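Standup notes
- DV: blocked on the single-chain target, sequence here:
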Amino acid sequence: MTQKRERLLSHILHGILKDGGRISCGDFIGKSVASSVLCGVPIKRLDSDTAFFMMMGDEGVRTKFFRAFVREMRRRDKSFGHCCFVDTTPCPPPGC
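- DV (later): unblocked, structure below
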């Protein structure tokens, strides 16, 4: 995997798995098992990435990305996206 792809994956993992924590992307990857998989990523550089990576936090950009992703996956596999599993662990109990 190229370094750019590994950096992008690092930011995606951080964005999804940090679970509201205020840990920086570099610290998150450096302290997780992801560092052994993404070994080509310069950890210190993750915290100073360009605006491109910061845009991933923009809801409109994420929506466009996932729409394009689903469209491409359905092109490859017509059955893709016809069911969804939702992990409700972080959701508050009903009635809260």
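- Follow-up: The mean pLDDT is 76.
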